[in-house]
Sequence to fold (403 residues):
Amino acid sequence: MKYIIVLGDGMADYKLPALGDKTPLQCADKPAIDALAKKAEIGLCRTVPQGFKPGSDVANLSVMGYDPHDCYTGRSPLEAVSIGIALKDTDVTLRCNLVTLSDEEAYEEKTMLDYSAGEISTAEARELVAALKQEFDNADFTLYAGVSYRHCLVAANGKTGHDLTPPHDISGKPVREHLPKGPCAAQYLAMMKRSAEILKDHPVNRARVAAGKNPANSVWFWGEGTKPQLENFEKKFGVKGGVISAVDLVKGIGILAGMRIIDVAGATGNYDTNFAGKAQAALDALNSGLDLVYIHMEAPDECGHQGDAAHKIYSIEQISEKVVRPICETLRAAGEPFRMLVCPDHPTPIAIRTHTADPIPYLLYDSTSERGSGAEAYDEDEAAKTGIFLDAGTQLMQKLLAK
Fold:
């Protein structure tokens, strides 16, 4: 038996008047997924435990079978592991976004225009991070470059207990009420203000502005955490697993769990990602000894944050046609029995452009036991209609791997 998890990050949504009072899942032309839905268990699942913020960190841990109550220490240390940072037990990490703020002179009066600085390229970002490192790196702090707008600050012998707002939660909003709070807040804010001075006239940003792109004109700190530990995935579940993702967060979870990290050329973390390449990489991994592959696609989430319904629908259609269809067809042709879980980690509704903790719709298909739940398609309403509800995201992995 082979096991495949197709994770469309942020895929679930609310109904939109502009879409005829439908969700993106309901609008998407996704015949491969909907064909499975008629022969699968369909239901709702709470992937974000009560009391936790609805982040991709907590939600992906849950879907991967790890209870956040037992292992969650913050988002940024998961990303730090993927970047290759060797953390000490006394280190505190912070996610460092390159963002676009409005151009008011006083930092407190600025507005969060773009949490991703126009999806800045990794090459451009590395130049900007190099400039910031010259000023920020010292005995207390080290800044590390990641991918695109996603970077990491490590505070040696740091303190926790800060109130730090994710920038994607305040798109289009003034930053005044969302500046750092807590024991090191003054220091963090000073670094954010200084970054704006350093980045304002950097050649990379001058070129971006000239090209009509958003400049990366500040850093924004959030997602603090400390060194995490996860039980080995194979030891915990008895299967060999691998992770395919373009984002450091999910790769970091996989690394900590001892899973194989599978890189795919052209994987971007957005709707232009190499969907077909991810499917082929999953099939290759299953053919080379892995029992389970976790295929994470960030595209629907990014489109949700951007308020881009058209590309969110497109991303769902690509997942159906270029990931679900070829994997199912190839495994069936080979006579390989398989189970497939299709789900988001959390909703990222277009209307609010950030995550929610609402239960997600899931689809669990078993090629050896095609029994439907009464659903005619895969979407939020069809999942609710079946009456099946799982109160913990960890139950998804348990059901997928049940003997």
The chain has a mean pLDDT of 97.
